[in-house]
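Today's session is about reading a structure prediction critically. Students often jump straight to the picture, but the first step is always the sequence itself: look for stretches that repeat, for charged clusters, for runs of hydrophobic residues. Only then move on to the predicted structure, which in these notes is written as discrete structure tokens rather than atom positions. Here is the chain we will use throughout the hour.
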Amino acid sequence: MDSNMRTIKRTVQSASTLARQERPKKLLNQIRNAIRLKHYAYRTEETYVQWIRR
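Below is the predicted structure for this chain, in token form.
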């Protein structure tokens, strides 16, 4: 019975680790990445992020 509990505990820990790794990026970080892909100026990026925060 102890080995079954260890296996279950290991499976739960693996699942929680996997869930943490697959967490989507926060909205502002996604927007920053999109702006950087378009090669906008840093100041433009900051302005857009400030607009979104408001």
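Discussion point for the tutorial: Residues 25-54 form one domain.
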